[in-house]
Amino acid sequence: MDKRIIIIHPSQIIRQGIIALVRTRIDWEIIEFCDGGELSHYRSIRNARIIFVVDVGLANDELTNALSPFGESNSIKILYLTQGENNCTSADNDCHLSLNASKDELLSLLEVHFGTGSNLAQKKSAESMSLTERERDILKLVALGRSNKEMAQLLSISIHTVISHRKNITDKLNIKSISGLTVYAILNRLIDAESIDVESLI
Amino acid sequence: MEIFHKDSRMSDLIHRNFLLLPVMNRFGVRLGFGDKTVSELCLDKGIELDFFLAIINTFNNHDYFPEDELRSFSATLIVDYLKKSHHDFLKFRLPKIERVLSRLIGNSNSEDLKIIQTFYKKYKTDLVTHIKDEEENTFPYVLQLQKIHDSGTKQLPSSLLTYTIHSFEKEHTNVDEKLFDLKNIIIKYLPPQYDDVDCNEFLFELFEFERDLTDHARIEDNILVPMAMAMEKSLKDG
Predict the structure, then answer these.
(1) In this complex, do B115 and A177 lie within 8 Å of one another by their Cβ atoms?
(2) Cα–Cα distance for residue pair B211/B205, rounded to 1 Å
(3) pLDDT tens track for A144-190
(4) How far is A20 from chain B (nearest CA, A)?
(5) CA-CA distance, A54 to A6, in Å (whole number)?
(6) Average pLDDT, stretch B62-71?
(7) Which of A12-16, A23-27, A171-175, B42-46 has the lowest mean pLDDT?
(8) Per mean pLDDT, which range of A23-37, A112-126, A163-177, B158-172 is the poorest?
(9) CA distance B20 to B52
């Protein structure tokens, strides 16, 4: 999941200051505004973890309405910058961070939402990414242009199982098109390019 | 990520993002700007300033997409831009990718690269078919809608009643998937029996082209199609 920080604060010094403090985290993308006016132009952001860092003085219904559409396809959190005290619990979606807070306090709050562990789940071991024997059988048949129904008959399994194998193959290899899977099968010598009509199968 | 404004200097735009250059060419803009600002240049060239800025900023910044503003332009303007992009793809981008690919294959004796070439050709066939379909069917339909809409007629002629924009515009997904797969296979699975410089160049071209296509598809799917749907609705409701 992409990690984005959207800073909405009238003070350029504060915006640039936050950017300077978080710059070492290279996978955090930062967008900054002096107010919420242009937010709607960014509504195409999807599947991201977004932290809005907002001047508490800007908090009103209008801003809440502008932020809420982002929550539909992203995981969002709002951090209000205030002259007052810190008021943050990790479970809450909104929290108040004092402008007197330290760099570490800011970073740790951001990290809680972005999660250092979330990427680990996506990093599967090399072993679990390699195809099983059955998946290789299916892949060969896909590459040879067989339909799901034909594969189910040939291997004496249900179509549902065929589809589930195919999904696993696509997830593991990160190849979606049939042409792409065929190319993979040829490059990995699962099928013999000499014995098939490559032009028509790819 | 910065947003360019009417007072930004044209030369700065290119210094910040040289990939904007081919996008600008589609508007008939060429280098040698001197110190001209965006608004001065648009005035000189008779380009619609707001449209130019919207397209440039959309391309420059992947997160930036002012849907409401883009939908306020005429379909004619958008179709014209999309057609110029198609022309750019077919006349310059694809031939360049092919030149690079031929050199990659010519400097290596890997049979695997020929398989990659076959896959590329298949991708190209799909893409060209898709573009042709848009130029011959989708765009003329949208332009006709706009014409009827502008004429103040409150009803759709019966010849158009049976169609909707969805009868024409097909999903881009299948074509896009092949391009992604092509890149991914080279990155992950192609045995590196080739000249690195040649292969890097091929891959760079594919990445750049993919980026251009994504931006293009975004304008088609999120701007042109909703605009056509809105016109259909207003004409059908009379």
Answers:
(1) no
(2) 10
(3) 999 999 999 999 999 999 999 999 999 999 999 999 999 999 999 99
(4) 14
(5) 8
(6) 86
(7) A23-27
(8) A112-126
(9) 11
B188 touches chain A (CB under 8 A): yes
- Pairwise CA distance, residues A2 & A49, whole Å: 6
Write the residue in B65, B118, B182 that is nearest to A41 by C-beta: B65
pLDDT digits (tens, 9 = 90+) for B213-223: 999 998 998 88
| A37 contact residues in B (CB cutoff 8 A) | none
Alpha carbons within 13 A on the beta-carbon side of B231: 29
User: Chain B within 8 Å of A56 (Cβ-Cβ)?
Assistant: no
Query: Six-digit token pair at A112?
Result: 């809680």
pLDDT bucket at A24, cuts 50 / 70 / 90: confident
Please count the residues of chain A. 202
B171 near A CB under 8 A: no
- Determine the Cα–Cα distance for residues B216 and B214; give it in Å rounded to an integer: 5
Higher pLDDT, B34 or A41: B34
Per-window interface: A 100-139 vs B, CB < 8 A: none
Q: Establish if A41 touches chain B: CB-CB under 8 angstroms.
A: yes
Say how far apart CA B142 and CA A201 lie, in whole Å.
36
Q: Do A175 and B185 lie within an 8 Å CB cutoff?
A: yes
| Angle, CA of B53, B55 and B60, to the nearest 5° | 90
A184 touching B (Cβ < 8 Å): yes
Find the CB nearest B190 among A4, A175, A187.
A187
Partnered with residue A52 across adjacent β-strands are: A6, A78
> Helix or strand or coil: residue A4?
strand
Question: Do B189 and A184 lie within an 8 Å CB cutoff?
Answer: yes
- CB < 8 Å from A in window 84-113 of B: 111-112
Measure the CA–CA gap between A14 and B156, rounded to whole angstroms. Answer: 55
Q: Which residue of A has its CA nearest to B178?
A: A177
Query: Would you say B113 and B105 are in contact if contact means Cβ atoms under 8 Å apart?
Result: yes
Q: Is the pLDDT of residue B236 over 50?
A: yes
SS3 A49: strand
Q: What span, in angstroms and rounded, lies between the C-alpha atoms of A84 and A97?
A: 8
Q: Is A38 on the interface with B (CB under 8 A)?
A: yes
For residue range B16-54, list pLDDT tens digits in order: 999 999 999 999 999 999 999 999 999 999 999 999 999
Q: Is B72 on the interface with A (CB under 8 A)?
A: no
Query: What is the pLDDT at residue A98?
Result: 92
